[in-house]
Amino acid sequence: MIASTPHPGVRHVTTYRCTPSIIRPSGGTPCIVRSSGGAPCIIRPSGGARAYVVTRASTPNSLLSQPLALEMLSIAWPTLLSLACDPMASLVDTAWIGRMPSGAASIASVGVALSICNTLTKLLNNPLLSVSTSLIATAVGEDVRARQVSPCDNDISQRTPIGPASRHACTTALGLALCFGLFQTALLSGPLAPRLVTSFTGLPVESALSQAALGFLFFRGLGAPITTLLLITQGIFRGLGDAKTPLRSTVTANLINIILDPLLIFGVAWGIRGAAVATVAGQAIALAGLLYSLRLQLARCPPPPSSSSSSSSTLGSADARHPLDVFRFVKSTVLLLVRTVSVLGCFALATSIATRNGAVAGATHQICIQIWLATSLTADAVAVGAQTLLARAIGSGDTTQANEIVRIAQQFSLLLGVGLTLVMAFATATNLLPVLFTLDPATRSMVRWLLPVVAGTQLLNALAFTWDGILFGVNGFKYSPLLMALSAGPALLLMSTALETSSVTSALTITWSGLALLMLLRFLTIYTLYLVRLGPFRTLYPGS
Asked: Among 141, 137, 131, which residue's Cα sits nearest to residue 75?
């Protein structure tokens, strides 16, 4: 038995017997790492060469002084920048295409093509992205547990332990991404493409706009496997706890696209087809760099632990089952696809109601919804950070750390919601946003009137997106379609009443009240399950 005198502020002292390959203090100097609960640990050599005393300090009071909070931010801020950069390719394409002689017609045709591509991304790629991030982070946690890492050695921000489960999850995600990409190639570049275009435009396939859109779609369709693989590989890195590498790949793809656009659109005279080729080329080069980096990570995969060593783990033996297979990936992705349909239905109805009330109402709604989506990116980034860390903790069986992550994510969502509300209130009071987005006096006036409503939804947005991330972090994918249906149903009923009013302001008020209700119910349905410890949240309380 090894004794130790607690230092000032130390909550308790625990002794772990570890191999030198796990914890290596040099020359007796204390080695400070993070404990399973997020508090710092001090590791000192004591006694034999394989025995160390681990002291866990008290949890810091300040949110930003907690290691788990800092690690969550280290994932969130690069993710935010990546999400903000993602639309850049489309913006750059639109800017250069607008300089063509047939600028308006070309922009309209590209707009149709991009709408089709974005719809497929929301329905197929984004669900697979969320599933891949969660299941790979869970696999990382399983590898931590299987390798018998002590609670104070679980510092994946410094050393991601790639193991058999992580390798299997990565290869599964990449294989499915390739399949999803090839499916999109068949849709966008195959015989069904004309039908897709006509369904979006309402124009005959022989029209100039439809033909231009088909030309753009053909090349984007050929590059669909690259686009999907790039997106899912970024999710893989986030699942491994690395959000900076995906950010670099996003910046690389956009820079190459910016360089190639004028060369291919005007220099080679490929027109809008050149814009599509430039986008795919940038994504292909970025993907090559990402796959090379991932290959280097997977090359460090250690051999599976022997059964004898697993039985002596301080955290329990490795789980014999292997749930991270193709079926689980596909099932979870399909469930999120059904959930996405409910969300898209709410936004489609909101847009339809706004456009039915005239051009000014439609423009007002479009401006406000774009502002709303832009501010939501920050909440989405925090959700990705919470999702990654929570899934990793669940995989490692560390429920103490999992509950700490939920607590920190809640604090971040509240701070973020209040902060965004204040920012939007300032922008509304200074009349900055209406002037920035439109020159039409009538639209400016209506935007100014609607912005306080948008500002009032910011806290709800932050809570809803963050708790979505928490739900995905505990792998609650099978509950997501039902919870979203319970949220979208009342919101759709409320918004449908706007179809019966003849007042433009009343229609927009009801529409945005419906969107606010959607966000409120998204938060409450998940939070209620958490409070009563039901569904996927039972894993956070194994003794209850």
From this structure: 137
CA distance 60 to 411: 14
> Which of 390, 527, 536, 367 has the alpha carbon at shortest distance from 460?
527
Residues 134 and 235 reside in one and the same domain? yes
Q: Give me the helices (H) in 315-440, please.
A: 326-356, 359-396, 399-429, 432-437
Report the C-alpha gap between 54 and 40 in whole angstroms. 10
What pTM does this model have? 0.81
DSSP 38: S
Pair 229, 285: CB distance under 8 Å: no
For the chain, give me the number of helices (H) and strands (E)? 19, 4
Q: For residue 230, with 0-12 CB atoms within 10 Å meaning exposed, 13-18 middle and 19 or more buried, which class applies? A: buried
What gap in Å lies between CA 523 and CA 504, rounded to an integer?
A: 29
Whether 210 and 107 have beta carbons less than 8 Å apart is answered as no
Angle at alpha carbon of residue 84, lines to 141 and 87, rounded to 5°? 115
Q: Which residue, of 59, 85, 100, is where some domain finishes?
A: 59
The reported pLDDT for the residue numbered 301 is 60
Alpha-carbon gap, residue 23 to 147, rounded angstroms: 13
- What's the domain range around 39? 10-59
Evaluate if residue 162 carries a pLDDT over 80.
Answer: no
If asked whether residues 46 and 22 sit together in one domain, one would say yes
Cβ atoms of 492 and 511 within 8 Å: the answer is no
For residues 362 and 396, state if they share a domain.
yes
As a whole number of angstroms, the distance between CA 228 and CA 6 comes to 52
Task: Determine what percent of the chain falls in helix, strand and coil, rounding each to the nearest 5.
Answer: 75, 5, 20
Tell me, yes or no, whether 186 and 215 share the same domain.
yes
Tokens of 459: 């806290």
Looking at residue 85, its pLDDT comes to 84
Distance in angstroms (rounded) separating the CA atoms of residues 278 and 257: 5
Picking from 83, 105, 136, the residue whose alpha carbon sits closest to that of residue 388 is 136
- Please spell the DSSP secondary structure of 234-291, one letter per residue: HHHHHHTT--HHHHHHHHHHHHHHHHHHHIIIIIS--THHHHHHHHHHHHHHHHHHHH
- Which two three-digit tokens encode residue 154? 């679980």
Mean pLDDT of the chain: 81
Which residue carries 């947005």 as its tokens? 461
Task: Establish if 329 belongs to a structural domain.
Answer: no
pLDDT of residue 254: 92
Helix (H) / strand (E) containing 308: helix 307-311
Q: Which residue has the tokens 């004028």?
A: 262
pLDDT digits 0-9 by tens, 415-473: 999 999 999 999 888 888 888 777 778 888 998 999 999 999 999 999 999 999 999 99
Q: In the sheet where 40-45 sits, what is the strand order?
A: 10-17, 51-57, 40-45, 31-34
